[in-house]
Write a structure and sequence with these properties.
By secondary structure, this protein is α/β, with parallel strands linked by helices. The protein has one domain: Ribonuclease Inhibitor (Leucine-rich repeat, LRR (right-handed beta-alpha superhelix), Alpha-Beta Horseshoe), CATH 3.80.10.10. The longest helix is centred in the first third of the chain and has 8 residues. The chain is globular.
């Protein structure tokens, strides 16, 4: 089966295929070792002769280990580093010289104990006064059982002027959505935990790729009709009714991936989406059951509704 175009575009900001190193506690690093990563214990650093081989680096300390929350000095000397995972406390202490200029994606990890320790230290959860002019991707990751991170640290377009990709979870008060609306240059938004509120109005008009993972029962998908440049959609677990008529309002839409969404209506509206070339539905209560004969799979580059 052909891979979704939106997945290919997301992979552009991920460490797939890169020479990867992990520094941290063994239990955190083990599953990356299975993918070929080189594992080093916390507090150590790679041999300087290997710096040029490191393309992706993950720092994975426990809450106790990260109490010295300064970014290790060797990181700035990695000439080919493209992907970096840093614990939240270190991100708060970033300095202009902390990271190499060519870094493409920064992953901010929030593990159990991080936020609790920061609150005990009365540390403000705020992006430092640092600009990363070449950074393309930013990923906020909340580990299981970690205290919820309810902010994107107040990041601004001025601090990250080249930012294209953002991945995060929304919070129950939509504070994170409010922050996202200030990032007008985004091309790809991957977001989970969408509330019932007006989420997608006034988002970046430049958005081309949108992934929505999980919504509340009264979420209205028609909000996305304002995003006229959307080309690629990934929608997983929409609890509310999903009226496919909304897709006809996106003139550049090329790909739709719908998963685990049971209340789909007007599926035949997809026939009016003239730019649509890729269609994938999985576990959606068989929305094509009575109209399947209207669709010609040969018209599409990818048409997979077998398990819809």
């Amino acid at each position: 089966m052909k891979e979704a175009l939106i997945s290919t575009k997301r992979a552009h900001y991920m460490p797939l295929g890169l020479n990867q190193y992990c520094i941290g506690n063994k239990s955190e690093c083990n599953h990356f070792e299975e993918d070929g990563a080189i594992i080093l214990p916390w507090g150590s650093s790679p041999d300087a002769n290997l710096y040029s081989k490191i393309e992706a680096l993950r720092l994975l300390p426990t809450a106790i280990q990260v109490k010295n929350s300064l970014v290790p000095e060797f990181i700035r000397a990695l000439p080919n580093l493209l992907f970096l995972e840093l614990p939240l406390p270190m991100v708060l202490n970033l300095q202009a010289s902390s990271l190499p200029a060519q870094l493409k994606t920064l992953m901010v990890s929030n593990k159990p104990g991080y936020i609790d320790n920061l609150k005990a230290q009365r540390t403000t959860l705020q992006w430092p006064p640092v600009s990363l002019p070449n950074l393309k991707g930013l990923w906020f990751f909340n580990a299981f059982n970690a205290t919820e991170l309810t902010t994107l640290l107040g990041i601004s377009a001025q601090a990250l002027p080249s930012l294209e990709y953002l991945e995060c979870l929304n919070d129950k008060h939509d504070a994170i959505i409010t922050e996202i609306k200030h990032l007008k240059g985004l091309k790809f938004l991957h977001i989970g935990n969408i509330n019932n509120s007006d989420t997608f109005s006034n988002l970046a008009g430049s958005l081309e790729s949108l992934s929505i993972i999980g919504t509340k029962p009264k979420f209205d998908l028609f909000q996305i009709s304002e995003l006229k440049k959307i080309k690629y959609l990934w929608i997983n677990t929409i609890k509310s009714e999903l009226n496919c008529e909304v897709f006809t309002m996106l003139p550049e839409l090329q790909e739709i991936n719908i998963l685990n969404s049971k209340k789909i209506i007007n599926i035949e509206s997809l026939l009016k989406c003239n730019a649509l070339k890729s269609v994938y539905f999985l576990d959606c209560n068989k929305p094509f059951k009575n109209v399947k004969e209207l669709f010609n799979p040969e018209k599409y580059d990818r048409f997979n509704i077998k398990y819809s």
